[in-house]
Every structure is written in structure tokens, then in C-alpha cells.
Design goal:
- The complex is a heterodimer of chains A (326) and B (328).
- Chain A is an alpha/beta fold and 326 residues long.
- Chain A has 2 domains: 1-94 and 176-263 and 271-278, 3-Layer(aba) Sandwich (Rossmann fold), CATH 3.40.50; 108-171, no CATH class.
- Chain A contains 11 helices and 12 strands.
- Chain A is globular.
- Chain B contains 13 helices and 12 strands.
- In chain B, the strands form 2 sheets. Chain B has an 8-stranded mixed beta sheet, with helices on both faces.
- In chain B, helix 4 packs parallel to helix 6 (152-165) and helix 5 crosses helix 6.
- Classes of the chains: A alpha/beta (326), B alpha/beta (328).
- The structure holds adenosine-5'-triphosphate (2 copies) and magnesium ion (2 copies).
- One magnesium ion is lined by residues 49-50, 100, 182 of chain A.
- Residues 49-50, 94, 174 of chain B line the site of one magnesium ion.
């Protein structure tokens, strides 16, 4: 791991405008990522993890206008406001990505072997024949049974986890410098998950690849991430080294999240620990701290003013809760 | 306890790649669900869990075997009676992107289900929609959003709300909470526990999160390459896993403590992953099993009952169980 950041995100704010709604799912997010480093993004479902990572790459569903402001520097190239051509030349080559929803990312009418080979051919500039061989290698690498037969199958003939592995194979086909992985292992069983994470780490070490890993699985975070960024309602609640944030969380939402992890001594059949209350459905930017209505530590004033992300008693950790980090 | 759903010797196949090749995705599976219980179904990705679930609700056509609901073989029903039985057994899809109509708003998606079950009054339906959204942890403000405008986890909750709208007696939940963050996951899991306790809903819970299954399910089935390899009470299967595959699975669960997780030795899975079109002879797991002996290739593994409820399809089950007792 070198000190040089490959990705510098500063004050990233994204408004999504559809025909009848305006949503701000990303509200002033800042982080940096060095080569070879892994940053995990965790947080409430609907808190903006996916949009944070994909909108700046020009990857948003049709029918939505994404209004992106702030700055995303990838190897010195500004992505915010970059033209489609620039983004297209990065996507899939220098920046690989794994979508949360593999089915919509795969072409239902084409055999998966073609789909993988196509990416390899396009980005590695190799012959179609070499690309086919590469596709076979990749299918083996992600641990799929019957690799030769699998190449000939269509996406709908695969289980959820097999499809996810096809996506992973495509994402690493061009050996990117940055991999953005949105819940890459949620559809996988734990043995395959361990194998995929090991594979990603190997590639990472070999290529000095940086990785943004969106996940809900704290075990995956613990094993794979150097740092964690916790999001709530489009904002950064906390960010810091994994071994600190998971062990001594400093934001009430992170605390609740970690408390909710099932433990070995939880009785079989017992109720699950979680946070009460509902996460906000995003609309107009929220005044004050968005977590206030669900927070055990909230005081008067929390709802009035948005808490800044500040360094805590531990200088490596930043949290947006002045109540617990005065 | 009364069995509300029984699956007997179910076989579901798909055409494989190559002439005359087939994939037996579900290969002679028998399971039971009692009302008011949550039963876990875990296993390798691609082993046939979704196909089993889909076959139970009639989304796939089994080649042989029976699905018995409330004592009646579904294969013997047709018309209105079959429709009523099908409605009572709901499937919550693994993929919330595929199961919702993009052009519908959240309210419309749930309303549709309420109309199907015959809730006639608009006011009543509207109130019920609010109640269902609340149960799955969605603020009522989502009601007028299009489903395509929701995040993965939000969609998943709409899908759950919709299947609850028809007041099912059996829920087949295919990874219902894997897209949710832990705090909302806990709420939804507690909702399943409430449905079980208050309405006696039975739930087959397909999941990869083994810690979650342990806590929620009273019994668990472990599946490998189309077959159930171990089944029993959660205390039995988690406390004394006795099939080599179950042991491997449990040893692979990551720990949320970074100091432990980074030092943990992850078991390496040896051997080739077998082809589902051409499974190994004898025991399907033998190609990757650390204990396999010659006999495992020749004959199918016997089913060994360690207790009346704990069954394992492995000739070494007794030895493994003994060893895990002395190790503990
Ligand atoms: N196509 C869209 N149109 C309008 N709003 C959208 C669209 N996609 C996402 N949103 C909104 O943006 C917010 C952030 O969504 P995002 O998908 O980034 O959440 P997430 O943190 O990835 O959640 P999850 O963990 O459930 O995947 C959500 O509240 C959602 O309502
Ligand atoms: N429509 C289909 N055509 C051909 N093969 C299929 C079809 N659907 C499923 N299969 C095959 O059946 C097997 C079981 O698939 P299934 O989706 O049931 O697995 P699963 O246990 O649910 O896996 P996961 O945990 O990844 O969701 C896989 O080998 C898959 O490729
Ligand atoms: Mg997402
Ligand atoms: Mg499945």
C-alpha cells in the first residue's frame, strides 16, 4: 500500500430528480482511498451507498437526472462534470464494478461466456480467441462448477449466487485499478464468500488495486476492509480504521448497528436486537441530525443543527455526533 | 404440532447444457413445516434452495414427488381450491428487482395484493397498506414512490409487505433480509417471529447468514447439490454439526471482530466443485470431503439418526459427532 491516494472524494452531493420527486441521497460525502486499500461503506438501507459510488461514474438508471456536485478525483481526473466519453473510457477498464443487482447488469439474451469475453477483448485488446480463454480462466477463478458448460449458459439459468460470480468475473476481467463492489457476496454462501474475498485480496495485492466495498455484513468488513465509512440518510455518520470503528464505535447509529450483530450467546429463538424507529424516506435535505428521532443520546438542539463530521478523541476516527464526542 | 406443509421425495430438473443432459436441481428432497415454526434452509450457492422453494409454490414443475398442504396433495387439486391453497403459501423472492413491477408505486403494488384477497373497501385497503408498510419498517412516505425509485433493501421490504397482504399461512422466504442493514434486519426478523407466534405462520427461511438462521429457526436443513445432507433442531445442527459439509460451512462464518477475523484460518475447500449435470457417484460431497473413503464413491451414504430429530446423510456421522463432543 502506497501513500498516494487514487481516489479523492470531496463534498460529494447528489440530487436525484425524477418526474415527480427530488431526493438528496448523497449529502456532502468526503473520503480518500489509497492504492491497495479497501474502504467498506456500510449503513442503513436506502442511505445512499449505491448512489454515492455509481452516480459519479455516470451509472444511474434511466429516467433519473442525477445532479452531482463536489469533486471526485480518480488518478487526477475529475469525474464530476466529466463528459460521457471520459467516463466510458474508465468504466470497466481502470474502474471495475460489481452491481448490487446482477440480473439487470447482465444481458439476458447472451451466453455468459460471450459477455465475459467481450469485456476482456474490449479492454485488454486481445484476440477473440484469447478472450475466450480468459473467460474460461475467470469462470474457474470465481469457483464455478462445470466451467466449460457454464460459459454456454444464459443468465436466467443460473442461481443468484452463480450470477453474482459472473458479475465478479466481468469486473476483474480487465484487472482494474479501482474496484467498486456493491454487496458482492450477499448472494453467496459463506464458503464461496470466503473464496471470493480471498480471490479479490490476491488480485488486490498483485495489482495494488483499491477497493470500495459496500456491504451489510460486518464479518466481511472485519476481514476485508482497512477502513469503514458509515452512512446514515445520505450523510457520513462515522469514518475510521476498521479495528477502531467496529470495536469502539463513536456514533450512536454505528453503535446500534454493531449491537445488532447476532452473537453466539444469543438464545435460539430469542428476539433480534436492533434500533427502534424507521429510517427517513429521503426527500428534501433534513434539518439537523437525521438520526435524532431514533437516537438514545439525542439532546435538545440535535434536530435543529446538522452536526459536522469532526475528529474524535481518537484522531484516526471522525464522527458526526457532538453529543458523544464533545 | 401439526404439519402444515410436507414435501415428499421432490425432484425438479432443468435441461442442462448438452444433448439429453439434465440438472437435478432438487434431488429427492423431503422436508416438513409445522404451523408456527420457522425452519432454516441453508447450503451452498447453486445447491437448489430457490428451486425447492419455487417448486413448493408451483413456480417450477417438479418431475416427481409430492407437496402436501394441510394434509392435501396439491397435485390432486385444481381450479379454485388449488388457487386458494397457492395463495396460502407465499414466496418472498430472492431478487426484489425481479419481483416488483417498475411501473407501479409502492401503494399500488400492495393494493393489488389486497384486491386479490378481496379486501373490497378502498378505505380499508388504504389503512392496511399503511399498517403493512409500518410492519416492514418503511415510512408511509414511500407509498407514492415508484418501486424503481427505491434502494435494494427498500424494495425487499415492499416485496415482504406484499406477500403479507394476503395473510399467508406459509411463507417461503428466499433470503428475505440479506439486502437489509442490521438494524432494519432485526426489525424484519422480529416481524417474522411475531407472525409465527401471533398468527401461527410457518416459514421456510432460506438464507446464507448462518448466525441469523440459528437465532430465528427452531430447526434447520442443510442442502448440498440438490440433497438434504443434514437436518435437525438448531441446537443440534449448530451444537453438534455432524456432516462434513455442515462443519465446513459453520467454520467459514466470518466474525465481526476484526482482531479475530483477520487471524482466523479460513478452511480451504479442496477438490473440484462437482458438476450438477454429472454429479459424483455415491456421496455427492465425497470429491471435496476430507474424510472420504473408497466406499463413499460406491454407495450412497446411509441416513444416520443421532437423535430422533437429528439426521445426517454420512456414514461417518457418529464418529464426527463423537469427535465434536470431545473437542468442545
Ligand atoms: N432510480 C431512482 N430514482 C429515484 N430515487 C432513487 C433511485 N435510486 C435510488 N433512489 C433513492 O436514493 C436513495 C439512496 O439509494 P441507494 O440505492 O444509494 O441506497 P443504498 O444505501 O445503496 O441502499 P441498499 O442498502 O438498500 O442498497 C434511496 O432512498 C432511494 O429512494
Ligand atoms: N431455469 C433454469 N434452467 C437451467 N438451470 C437452472 C435453472 N434454474 C436453476 N438452474 C440450476 O439449478 C441449480 C440450482 O439453482 P437454485 O437457484 O435453486 O440454487 P440456490 O441454492 O437457490 O442458489 P443461490 O444460493 O445462489 O441462490 C443451479 O445449478 C442452477 O444453475
Ligand atoms: Mg444499494
Ligand atoms: Mg437462490
Amino acid at each position: 500500500m502506497t501513500a498516494e491516494p487514487i481516489l479523492i472524494v470531496k463534498d460529494l452531493t447528489i440530487d436525484l430528480l425524477t418526474a415527480h420527486t427530488a431526493v438528496r441521497p448523497v449529502d456532502s460525502i468526503s473520503y480518500q482511498l489509497r492504492r491497495g486499500e479497501t474502504l467498506a461503506i456500510v449503513g442503513e438501507s436506502g442511505s445512499g451507498k449505491t448512489v454515492t459510488c455509481f452516480a459519479p461514474l455516470g451509472l444511474m438508471p434511466v429516467g433519473v437526472k442525477a445532479d452531482v456536485s463536489g469533486s471526485v478525483l480518480f488518478e487526477g481526473t475529475e469525474l464530476v462534470g466529466a463528459n460521457e466519453e471520459t467516463l466510458r473510457s474508465l468504466r470497466g477498464k481502470s474502474i471495475g464494478f460489481i452491481f448490487q443487482d446482477p440480473m439487470s447488469a447482465l444481458n439476458p439474451a447472451r451466453r455468459i461466456g460471450h459477455q465475459i469475453a467481450e469485456v476482456a477483448e474490449l479492454h485488454l485488446g486481445i484476440t477473440p480467441r484469447a478472450a475466450e480463454a480468459r473467460a474460461l480462466d475467470l469462470i474457474k477463478m470465481v469457483g464455478m462448477s462445470d466451467p466449460n458448460a457454464r460459459l454456454k449458459q444464459y443468465p436466467h439459468e443460473l442461481s443468484g449466487g452463480l450470477r453474482q460470480r459472473v458479475m465478479i468475473a466481468i469486473s476483474i476481467a480487465a484487472e482494474p485499478k479501482l474496484l467498486v463492489a456493491d454487496e458482492p457476496t450477499t448472494a453467496l454462501d459463506v464458503t464461496v464468500q470466503a473464496q471470493i474475498l480471498r480471490l479479490l485480496k490476491e488480485i488486490q495485492a498483485r495489482m495494488d488495486m483499491a477497493m470500495v466495498l459496500i456491504t451489510h455484513d460486518m464479518g466481511v468488513v472485519a476481514g476485508a476492509a482497512d477502513r469503514v465509512l458509515v452512512m446514515y440518510a445520505g450523510r457520513q455518520a462515522e469514518v475510521g480504521p476498521t479495528e477502531k470503528v467496529l470495536v469502539a464505535p463513536r456514533h450512536p447509529y454505528t453503535m446500534g448497528l454493531i449491537d445488532a450483530i447476532p452473537r453466539r450467546d444469543d438464545a435460539i429463538g430469542s428476539r433480534f436486537r436492533g434500533l427502534s424507529g424507521l429510517p427517513p424516506i429521503l426527500g428534501a435535505p433534513i434539518k439537523g441530525c437525521a438520526f435524532t428521532p431514533r437516537c438514545r443520546h439525542s439532546v435538545e438542539g440535535c434536530g435543529a443543527q446538522r452536526p459536522p463530521l469532526r475528529t474524535t478523541a481518537d484522531p484516526a476516527v471522525m464522527a458526526a455526533c457532538p453529543v458523544l464526542n464533545a | 404440532m401439526k404439519a402444515v406443509l410436507e414435501v415428499e421425495h421432490l425432484v425438479t430438473s432443468f435441461p442442462g447444457v448438452g444433448r439429453g443432459k439434465t440438472v437435478r436441481a432438487v434431488n429427492d428432497v423431503s422436508i416438513v413445516l409445522h404451523s408456527g415454526e420457522i425452519v432454516g434452509l441453508v447450503g451452498e450457492s447453486g445447491c437448489g434452495k430457490s428451486t425447492l422453494g419455487r417448486s413448493i409454490v408451483g413456480l417450477e414443475k417438479p418431475e416427481s414427488g409430492r407437496v402436501i398442504f394441510d394434509g392435501v396433495d396439491l397435485g390432486s387439486l385444481s381450479g379454485n381450491r388449488l388457487r386458494a391453497a397457492r395463495r396460502a403459501v407465499q414466496y418472498v423472492f430472492q431478487d426484489p428487482y425481479a419481483s416488483l413491477n417498475d411501473r407501479q408505486t409502492v401503494g399500488e403494488a400492495i393494493d393489488e395484493a389486497l384486491i386479490i384477497v378481496g379486501v373490497a373497501s378502498k378505505a380499508e385497503r388504504s389503512a392496511r397498506i399503511g399498517q403493512l408498510l409500518d410492519q416492514v419498517g418503511l415510512a408511509s412516505a414511500v407509498r407514492d414512490r415508484f418501486t424503481r425509485e427505491l434502494s435494494g433493501g427498500q424494495r425487499q421490504r415492499v416485496a415482504i409487505a406484499r406477500s403479507l397482504a394476503v395473510e399467508p399461512r406459509v411463507l417461503i422466504c428466499d433470503e428475505p433480509v440479506s439486502a437489509l442493514d442490521l438494524s432494519i434486519r432485526a426489525q424484519v426478523m422480529n416481524l417474522f417471529l411475531d407472525l409465527r407466534d401471533q398468527l401461527g405462520v410457518a416459514c421456510l427461511f432460506i438464507a446464507h447468514d448462518l448466525a441469523l438462521v440459528r437465532q430465528a429457526a427452531t430447526r434447520v436443513y442443510v442442502m448440498y447439490l440438490g440433497k438434504i445432507v443434514e437436518g435437525g433442531g438448531s441446537d443440534e445442527v449448530y451444537g453438534r454439526p455432524s456432516h462434513p459439509y455442515t462443519q465446513m460451512l459453520l467454520a467459514s462464518v466470518p466474525e465481526a471482530d476484526p482482531m479475530i477475523e483477520r487471524r482466523r484460518k479460513i478452511p480451504l475447500i479442496k477438490g473440484e466443485i462437482p458438476s450438477p449435470t454429472n454429479p459424483p457417484s455415491g456421496c455427492f460431497f465425497r470429491t471435496r470431503c476430507p474424510l472420504a473413503v473408497g466406499e463413499c464413491a460406491r454407495i450412497e451414504p446411509p441416513t444416520i439418526f443421532l437423535t430422533p430429530t437429528h439426521r445426517i446423510a454420512c456414514r461417518f456421522a457418529n464418529e464426527i459427532a463423537q469427535k465434536s463432543l470431545t473437542d468442545a
